[in-house]
Amino acid sequence: MGLGSVLIYSILALLVLLFLSSYSPFNHHSSHRHRRLKLRSNFTFSLSHSHHPPVPFDPLLAELERNREDKQWEQQHIHHSHPQLHHHDDDSAPAHESQPEWEDFMNAEDFINDEDKFNVTSRLLILFPKIDVDPADSFIDVHELTMWNLQQAHREVLHRSQREMELHDKNHDGVVSFSEYDPPTWVKSADKDSFGYDMGWWKEEHFNASDADGDGVLNLTEFNDFLHPADSNNTKLQQWLCKEEVRERDSDRDGKVNFKEFFHGLFDLVRNYDEEESHTDSHHTDNPMDVPARKLFAQLDQDGDGYLSDTELLPIIGKLHPSEYYYAKQQAEYIISQADGDKDGRLTLPEMIENPYVFYSAIFNDDEDEYTDYHDEFR
Ligand SMILES: *[C@@H]1O[C@H](CO)[C@@H](O)[C@H](O)[C@H]1NC(C)=O
Ligand SMILES: *[C@@H]1O[C@H](CO)[C@@H](O)[C@H](O)[C@H]1NC(C)=O
Ligand SMILES: *[C@@H]1O[C@H](CO)[C@@H](O)[C@H](O)[C@H]1NC(C)=O
Ligand SMILES: *[C@@H]1O[C@H](CO)[C@@H](O)[C@H](O)[C@H]1NC(C)=O
Ligand SMILES: *[C@@H]1O[C@H](CO)[C@@H](O)[C@H](O)[C@H]1NC(C)=O
């Protein structure tokens, strides 16, 4: 290769680079003022609380999402749980059947992105007085937004429980008996190491603990508690949760939690919970880590036998299994911090209208990258 051709190649490479950079998606990106709102197209039955989905802010959009989910659910239910029912079209499933209702889905997204049909400003005008209730003073504080989020979350959770209940209530009498109850398919198909499988979550003891009035069957309230024990007020269920915690942490199988078992696992959960609550960071203390851990352990160990029993875990069970309230509050604090223009810790209607996508992106973007994106875009 001669000097001439090297030169030509270099020039070509330079031109390609220039061309690419002028069409770089990054250049485009920063000029986007209006991001396209997205519906979440996902539902999971994960018992893990490490990835809690954002609470929907706007009930109208939550409803669109629920409709979408219901369709997915039907698809999944028909095709996976009861293949025998549809055996005739199993292998030769026509193309339109194997497709989710993308059209409906796209229509819903088009709807919320069409400013004439779905006007974010007027939505906020409608929603503001519904959130600003305690007291109705033209400010939304953390408590009001938390209660609002919690209301939305409970509705969502109950809807899913109801849908799941229909699946189990085989004789359609509105209650689920233990013999009717069948673990969800993912439990059956999951291998035995996966989360939740080995925890007795699907066992009769759990069922009985959920049966608050002890009539042998679960109504919707009880079934919802069964699926979401951390959000239940049922003390039997709280106690069952503590027993499960002991079972899970008790690596030497003596039926109790010793300090080592407490320190490696439970204590971190409690500490993380407390840190997020108080926004302090105790990682910077000079104490060796196990001093606060030993202190808490001693506090919890009521009978002083050096072990924690299930009942001794009751005071911290809410920190080990955070409830919807915890997430509702976390999201309220986050949203307020993002939209609170004058930094007085509460939101006015103008502040919300000024930052509409804070409310709507938190709901639509389950994708962390996009979450951080709008910090740049909407400031
Ligand atoms: C739902 O989300 C989970 C993780 O958040 C992901 O692993 C899964 O593939 C998603 N399912 C669908 C149908 O998008
Ligand atoms: C959205 O609603 C607000 C208030 O109701 C109104 O001022 C604005 O013009 C509307 N925007 C569109 C695009 O219709
Ligand atoms: C659950 O309760 C039923 C009575 O409703 C009882 O027969 C059964 O033994 C209980 N099971 C467990 C594991 O406690
Ligand atoms: C279910 O039963 C409980 C009593 O255990 C009752 O408080 C609750 O209202 C009932 N829920 C429904 C939906 O009927
Ligand atoms: C639990 O009780 C509190 C009041 O004690 C009530 O506000 C809350 O709605 C109850 N939660 C459930 C899930 O019933």
TrEMBL record:
Regions that span the bilayer: 6-26
Annotated Gene Ontology cellular component terms: endoplasmic reticulum
Pfam families in the record: EF-hand_5, EF-hand_7, EF-hand_8
Region listing for Disordered, in residue ranges: 71-99
Keywords, ordered alphabetically: Calcium, Membrane, Transmembrane, Transmembrane helix
Protein's organism: Vicia faba
Record-linked InterPro entries: EF-hand-dom_pair (IPR011992), EF_Hand_1_Ca_BS (IPR018247), EF_hand_dom (IPR002048)
GO MF annotation, one: calcium ion binding
Domain EF-hand: 204-233, 288-323
Xref: SUPFAM superfamilies: EF-hand (SSF47473)
Name of the protein described by the UniProt record: EF-hand domain-containing protein
Gene3D superfamilies registered for this protein in UniProt: EF-hand
